[in-house]
């Protein structure tokens, strides 16, 4: 579904992405791991049109989408969430969801004057869909709560709900577990699995919680210093010497190996 070929993104002399190539298969939940500064979020930002690449190509299916802006990619069904949730804090949870679909009749002054019935019909349909999404995510009891009052994990669920309001084809999730307690993280994981299996969503997930990655993701891609180090199943990648060294450094890697042989 998504193919990234020899992607480079440089900031002056710093190579945040340095020839990274990955493939995200349709219907998969692909994990993207790596130490801080590996280039994971930069890769996300280039794919999602937030940043232009220095070099390289991004394809969605057979279509070259390199450098397309986020709003165009949004209409193609490519969405991303951020490590820090971006909610409309003074609006309710339900209203946050209803804001997502574009091209609503109420967005034009003409329609607010002369097509109020059409606007009312659209709002009723959007409210129904928003309530269905909230029920799916098991946060329907928060429908009328101000979004700014939600916990970190609840805000991550709300961001996931936004993708459901437009029936996204592929969603890039940036550290969904950051600042989230274990119970809510399991709820988020359950929702991702259900969206994948029941609705055919494709996901790519950046996450440092390896238990979360192992539970959800196949394949797993590990990056370090802007390059792809390893690709495979979660257990295979996590046991890869290059991956262990990238996370722990050579000294700690050898120490871990010595301790393992002594057990």
Automatic annotation (TrEMBL):
<dbReference type="GO" id="GO:0016887">
    <property type="term" value="F:ATP hydrolysis activity"/>
</dbReference>
<dbReference type="InterPro" id="IPR003593">
    <property type="entry name" value="AAA+_ATPase"/>
</dbReference>
<protein>
    <submittedName>
        <fullName>Amino acid/amide ABC transporter ATP-binding protein 1, HAAT family</fullName>
    </submittedName>
</protein>
<dbReference type="InterPro" id="IPR017871">
    <property type="entry name" value="ABC_transporter-like_CS"/>
</dbReference>
<dbReference type="Pfam" id="PF00005">
    <property type="entry name" value="ABC_tran"/>
</dbReference>
<dbReference type="InterPro" id="IPR027417">
    <property type="entry name" value="P-loop_NTPase"/>
</dbReference>
<feature type="domain" description="ABC transporter">
    <location>
        <begin position="2"/>
        <end position="250"/>
    </location>
</feature>
<dbReference type="GO" id="GO:0005524">
    <property type="term" value="F:ATP binding"/>
</dbReference>
<keyword id="KW-0547">Nucleotide-binding</keyword>
<keyword id="KW-0813">Transport</keyword>
<dbReference type="InterPro" id="IPR051120">
    <property type="entry name" value="ABC_AA/LPS_Transport"/>
</dbReference>
<dbReference type="GO" id="GO:0005886">
    <property type="term" value="C:plasma membrane"/>
</dbReference>
<dbReference type="InterPro" id="IPR003439">
    <property type="entry name" value="ABC_transporter-like_ATP-bd"/>
</dbReference>
<keyword id="KW-0067">ATP-binding</keyword>
């Amino acid at each position: 579904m998504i193919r990234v070929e020899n992607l480079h993104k440089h900031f002056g002399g710093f190579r945040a992405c340095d020839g990274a190539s990955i493939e995200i298969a349709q219907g998969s939940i692909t994990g993207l791991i790596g130490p801080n500064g590996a280039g994971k979020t930069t890769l996300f930002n280039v794919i999602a049109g937030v940043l232009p690449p220095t070099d390289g190509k991004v394809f969605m299916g057979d279509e070259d989408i390199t450098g397309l802006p986020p709003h165009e990619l949004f209409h193609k069904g490519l969405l991303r969430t951020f490590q820090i949730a971006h909610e409309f804090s003074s609006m309710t949870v339900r209203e946050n969801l209803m804001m997502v679909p574009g091209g609503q009749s109420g967005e034009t002054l003409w329609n607010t004057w002369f097509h109020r019935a059409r606007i009312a019909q659209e709002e009723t349909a959007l409210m129904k869909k928003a309530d269905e999404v909230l029920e799916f995510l098991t946060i329907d009891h928060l429908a009328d709560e101000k979004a700014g009052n939600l916990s970190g994990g609840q805000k991550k669920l709300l961001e996931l709900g936004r993708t459901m309001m437009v029936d996204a084809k592929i969603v890039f999730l940036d550290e969904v577990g950051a600042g989230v307690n274990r119970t809510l993280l399991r709820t988020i994981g359950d929702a991702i699995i259900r969206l994948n299996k029941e609705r055919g969503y494709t996901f790519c997930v950046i996450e440092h919680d390896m238990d979360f990655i192992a539970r959800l993701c196949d394949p797993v891609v590990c990056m370090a210093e802007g390059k792809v180090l390893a690709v495979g199943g979660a257990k295979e990648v996590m046991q890869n010497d290059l991956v262990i060294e990238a996370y722990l450094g050579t000294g700690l890697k050898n120490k871990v190996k010595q301790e393992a042989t002594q057990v």
